[in-house]
Each structure stands twice: as C-alpha cells, then as structure tokens.
Specification:
Number of helices: 5
CATH class: Alpha Beta
CATH topology: Rossmann fold
CATH architecture: 3-Layer(aba) Sandwich
Helix content: 40-55%
Strand content: 15-25%
Number of strands: 5
C-alpha cells in the first residue's frame, strides 16, 4: 500500500531537493505551490501525511496547518513543518498551530527517518 504525501513548497529548487530526499520512501507525492493551493488539494483528496513550508505567498505554512486542522480528515493526520528560520523562534508557533514535528531546511536524513516512522504507522 502506498502512502500519500502532500508537499507544499513554493520554491522549485527546494521542492526538487525535498522530492530527491524523499524518493527512497516511495510516497505517492502530490505537490502544491502555496498554502491556498495545498488547502485546496487537501480538500479535494485525502493525504496520509502533509509536509508544509513556512514562508509562502498567498497563505503561509502556519496558516495552512491551522486550516488543515479545522478539517475533519486532518485533525489526526501527521503534518510536518519545514523552515529556514531558526527552529527555536518558530517551532512553538508551528506546534501550537498543530504541526506534528518541525524540521530545519535543508532537510536531512533525520527527516527521512521521522517520515519513515510515521509512514509505518499509516500502513499498520
């Protein structure tokens, strides 16, 4: 069974880096270019997990997380937050909004292990 992942990232170069990092996990990946696009896609289709960038045009990552948590389908789903900002500054806001975990960019192997762990729970 394939695990579906929505990746919401506005920068093409960063998106490609994220997709390359996640490739070994073989997610069924859908991408969105900003928070509003991500929210629309989350309403149209169900995703097992969501990975959200912090700073985006139209709707930022924290606003997107809050909006996703208001949807019945996403009240318990893992939503991961990624940022270039210092985590100590932004992580409390992201967690309060409903993020499951927060990651610093550029993402690394620890992120892969965290997602692998949640992926195992999704298919269990």
């Amino acid at each position: 069974m394939s695990v579906s992942l929505l990746v919401v990232e506005d920068k093409d170069k960063t998106l490609q880096q994220v997709l390359n990092l996640l490739e070994p996990l073989q997610f069924k990946v859908t991408t969105a270019t900003d928070g509003l696009d991500g929210l629309s896609k989350a309403k149209d289709s169900f995703f097992d997990m969501v990975l959200v960038d912090h700073k985006m045009p139209v709707m930022d990552g924290i606003s997107l997380i809050k909006s996703l948590r208001d949807l019945v389908d996403y009240q318990e789903q893992p939503i991961f937050f990624m940022t270039t900002q210092e985590l100590t500054e932004i992580e409390p806001r992201a967690l309060k909004a409903g993020a499951t975990a927060c990651f610093s960019k550029p993402l690394n192997a620890n992120v892969v292990e965290t997602l692998r762990s949640y992926m195992a729970r999704s298919v269990a």
